[in-house]
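Review this fold:
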Amino acid sequence: MIGRQVIKSGRVWESKEQLLEFMEANWDKEEYGEFFFGRPTPGSFAEYICLPATNRFMVIMYPKKEKVVLTVCDAPEGLKSRLVQSIPHQGRIISSAVAMAELGSHEKERKGPAEQVLLGYTEYMKELLGVR
């Protein structure tokens, strides 16, 4: 299992809203899908940038000092339809993962297609941030 991804961004993030503004200005929504800022689950204490991954999972992103953290988490029922509608079926990293996810179990979907999408988002964020 891949787990979370941490990108050393080379800049200090003062808030989640600052990262959100950066994404709104730079994120390719046609290729990598829509995102939203909010609580990923009803029990969440904090808000995160939420990105679609598969039908059952999403990727959350947040800043931590000079880093950007991405991780896979369950998409609760209330968010599933919103996330699924925003999954770009033509994008490079998501379309094949969605097709694979439809065939597998919950755990296989998390360890396979959802984490493939996580890695794709990580690479794209590194590109946007100019990190290699």
User: Anything to note?
Assistant: Residues 106-129 form the longest helix (24 residues). The mean pLDDT is 82.
